[in-house]
Amino acid sequence: xxxxxxxxxxxxxxxxxxxxxxxxxxxxxxxxxxxxxxxxxxxxxxxxxxxxxxxxxxxxxxxxxxxxxxxxxxxxxxxxxxxxxxxxxxxxxxxxxxxxxxxxxxxxxxxxxxxxxxxxxxxxxxxxxxxxxxxxxxxxxxxxxxxxxxxxxxxxxxxxxxxxxxxxxxxxxxxxxxxxxxxxxxxxxxxxxxxxxxxxxxxxxxxxxxxxxxxxxxxxxxxxxxxxxxxxxxxxxxxxxxxxxxxxxxxxxxxxxxxxxxxxxxxxxxxxxxxxxxxxxxxxxxxxxxxxxxxxxxxxxxxxxxxxxxxxxxxxxxxxxxxxxxxxxxxxxxxxxxxxxxxxxxxxxxxxxxxxxxxxxxxxxxxxxxxxxxxxxxxxxxxxxxxxxxxxxxxxxxxxxxxxxxxxxxxxxxxxx
Length: 417
Fold this sequence. Notes:
The protein contains 15 helices and 8 strands. By secondary structure, the chain is an alpha+beta fold. Residues 362-372 have low confidence and may be disordered.
């Protein structure tokens, strides 16, 4: 059914466009749902449920179109993997909705959940543009918000429509609901320009029980790993890479291991809290992250089983609002021999490097000359200390303009990605 609860009938739609929107929506849902929990924000949680309803409509349209396209056993074989991608995005959406309900239905969540939010993590806030607001009628590019304040408008909710990853040409209107992400100081400034009111951030609570802190920390890590698994899963589909798909499977196994440790810490903490029922929300969060990591494997299923990537899926991923690109570091480029931290890649380009592939000697050293003596090594979730070398293949996620800037710095041909 549609977001308003009515019936939906078949209508010709572009499967590529629907898949692209489903990808962007699924990724946004992960971010928003956990931000709602970490910030204890009911308004953001409600936006998650609105997006989940939108996803229900998208997946139904995608399934109808794919069923209409299958006319032979060969078609069915090719489209099976596409149906897997559709189903996985829907599972991510449902899991995000379950996370949002932890907040809205007061299922039970310890204050330590918010205390686990590191000070360095950027703030996510929902604001509604007031009729007389300074930002009403202005474009994001004209205001240059991200450059001036470090704040990014990650989505705009306008009536029944959603604009995920708005660009510089996107105009803000009175009544728009904006989802802002950025440093606390910058968010406060944009919030005031959008609403005409001061932003009042709640003080984080003091940390409590040690086992409970460990349980909460494990959930935050599970969320980060699951989110990375989804990014890599779409990357494996875009580049038809079994190596990247294999990393998705490894990350899913890591989430399973973290969940086991989480259960032990939660049970120990339950013996020491006044109301063990207050920990139910943590169990819901852990289950949701596990579902998300499983869905990431489903996205990669066609690649893992050697079915390859259907062209419509690869095109949908490449044309989504937030692109995943593969760039090779050229010799003598600005990025050769520097670390990601040295160049502050995310600050300079807005791109997040999610993986680096490099060719190394089969024995483990970097000096073999024969191609047969070399093999690929993946650095998954590289940190500031990760050094880039000529020949390294960088997988990064972000905006198209950011991808172009990153291509310039690596000396890669972005148009040939």
